[in-house]
Amino acid sequence: MDEFQNAAPGFDVLVLAPRAAGADLTLTAANHVIHLSRLWNLAVEDQCNEPVYLIGQDKPVTVYCPMARYPAIGDQSFDLKLNDLLWRKRSMSQSLLVPQESDSDYTTLFEETIAAE
Q1: DSSP codes of every residue in the chain
Q2: How far apart are CA 44 and CA 80, in angstroms?
Q3: What is the pTM of this model?
């Protein structure tokens, strides 16, 4: 890890398994993350990306998730269906933890507060 972090500018590659990449590493020398296979658990996938975003990162970071699309079945390809499922899971978890905001919620709360006084 130290060799990778302290290498001279240029092209370097460090290949890590998803579990290793999410194990308290600092990889601010990296600016590209490529997920060669997707994980069903989005939290683990996010942990794989985090080491390159830590304090000290001074380059833009790009995350890639290559997907195979087979012409014979098009949008029914496994990689595309898995990607859709993962994005639906991410969207659902975010909306459960942080409810969608609407102006009517604030207006109702404000009106109820004024009426109570």
Answers
A1: -HHHHHPPSS-------HHHHTSS---TT--EEE-SS--S-HHHHHHHHGGGTSTT--S--EEE------TTTGGG-HHHHHHHHHHHHHHHHHHHHSPPP-HHHHHHHHHHHHHH-
A2: 19
A3: 0.62
Residue 24 has pLDDT above 80, yes or no: no
Chain mean position to CA 55: 17
Q: What is the mean pLDDT of residues 29-58?
A: 80
Name, in order, each residue with C-beta under 8 angstroms of 83's C-beta and a sequence gap of 6 or more: 38, 65, 67
Q: Residue ranges of the domains in the chain?
A: 1-66, 69-117
